[in-house]
Design goal:
InterPro entries: Bacilysin_exporter_BacE_put (IPR022324). By secondary structure, the protein is mainly alpha-helical. The protein has one domain. It is 70% helix and 1% strand. It has 20 helices and two strands. It has helices spanning 2-17, 26-43, 50-63, 76-86, 93-107, 109-115, 120-128, 130-139, 144-158, 162-175, 184-189, 201-213, 218-226, 236-244, 251-271, 277-291, 300-310, 315-329, 331-334, 339-369; strands spanning 231-232, 294-295. The longest helix is centred in the C-terminal third of the chain and has 31 residues, at 339-369. The chain is globular, with a radius of gyration of 20 Å. It starts with a helix and ends in a 6-residue tail after the last helix. The model has no long low-confidence stretch (mean pLDDT 93).
Length: 375
């Protein structure tokens, strides 16, 4: 039950911090954030997941010069897997990868600090937030790496350093393609729209170099990246569709739901207008969470910095519900050998996920029609 106790303590601290003026320096908060993440990693040392094992598998393929390519992303994460395997006599591969992810999650505080107009309260809340820590330090996902580069690209864009922003965003997409979903708001606001063709620079160039060094064709890599999907039926509308059809939904219907969503997502991204770039991206993210037929629970980490900066109504409730959902969602990684806890987790995760989805729907439509409060 330690995971749930940790989550509860973090949420209480966030509630207290959100009502007081922070007197700690930015440097102290960054150091604290890193120490906290490493401490959680060591506290849940036995925690493991299919995702982190996949990163190590991809690294082993590279070491063996195996032409097989099973990764869902560009080759970046495979190199970290190589480093983890190479150093395994000195540090456990899980710990190594989670420390790397922790470095980037702590580094997220730098762009967040400036995007939040140097609001130390926002910085400390992110440092404490259990959603990111559970996903990164307990489950072992790499979301902090693309998230750092994505936020940095937004900061550069808002400082009118468009070329630097696009190159940074290009590298973010290379680490994980997810940031490409939120490119449209940048294109709409930029006067240098043609520069956005440079977004393909790092994904294409570094993938080509990878194929020259390793026996994996470029097209095989691009095919895997193109066809990567979240899990269908794990969230929201697709879960309801599966339930109503007694889990006999046809592949054609699944594909149709994906295509309708993608079309609607692009249309919403084009026509949604917010003066504030961060608010615009936040609304597009909420649209995705409300209507997507495919889902990955780790996607919640992308909402966290925007929730903390923008502070929409019910933002504390989002952090609370999201954190509890993450704790139950990834309890399997920690308590695989504790059948009572796993039984509890399995009995509530579906209902809890549905409740969180309904809450996000409320949050979305509340912010479609009403202005958010300023951070």
């Amino acid at each position: 039950m330690l995971l749930f106790i940790y989550t509860l303590i973090s949420l209480v601290l966030i509630w207290l911090i959100s009502n007081i003026k922070i007197k700690f320096s930015f440097k102290i908060i960054v150091i604290f954030a890193f120490i906290l993440r490493v401490s959680v990693t060591l506290l849940f040392l036995s925690s493991k997941s299919d995702d982190i094992n996949t990163f190590l598998r991809d690294g082993q393929y590279l070491l063996d010069r195996n032409p097989r390519y099973d990764a869902s992303y560009f080759p970046f994460i495979g190199y970290l897997g190589v480093a983890a395997i190479y150093l395994k006599n000195f540090i456990h591969p899980y710990v190594f990868l989670k420390i790397i992810f922790s470095i980037f999650d702590s580094a997220v505080l730098f762009p967040l600090y400036y995007l939040a107009k140097k609001n130390l309260q926002s910085v400390l809340i992110y440092a404490l937030n259990p959603i990111s820590i559970i996903v990164i330090n307990i489950h072992g996902q790499m979301e902090s790496i693309p998230l750092f580069f994505f936020l940095l690209s937004l900061l550069l864009f808002m400082k009118n350093k468009v070329l630097s922003s696009i190159l940074t965003l290009s590298f973010a997409i290379y680490t994980k393609p997810w940031p490409i979903l939120f490119v449209i708001p940048l294109i709409k606001k930029s006067k240098k729209k043609l520069l956005f063709v440079i977004l393909a620079f790092f994904p294409l160039i570094l993938t080509l170099i990878h194929s020259l060094l390793f026996p994996t064709p470029v097209l095989d890599i691009l095919y895997k990246v193109k066809n990567h999907r979240g899990i269908f039926g794990a969230w929201g509308l697709s879960k309801i569709a599966l339930y109503l059809t007694d889990y006999q939904l046809s592949p054609f219907a699944e594909q149709l739901m994906r295509r309708i969503f993608l079309s609607a997502f692009v249309i919403f991204s084009i026509f949604r207008k917010d003066k504030n770039l961060l608010k615009n991206i936040f609304m597009i993210m909420l649209f995705l969470f409300v209507f997507t037929p495919t889902f990955g629970i780790q996607w919640f980490t992308w909402l966290v910095p925007f929730i903390i900066i923008i502070r929409p109504k019910l933002w504390r409730m989002f952090l609370a519900l999201g954190s509890v959902y993450m704790a139950f969602g990834f309890a399997w990684d920690v308590y695989q050998n504790f059948p009572d806890i796993i039984s509890l987790r399995n009995s509530v995760i579906t209902e809890l996920g549905f409740f969180v989805w309904i809450f996000i729907i409320i949050l979305f439509f509340q912010n479609v029609f009403f202005k958010t409060t300023e951070s």
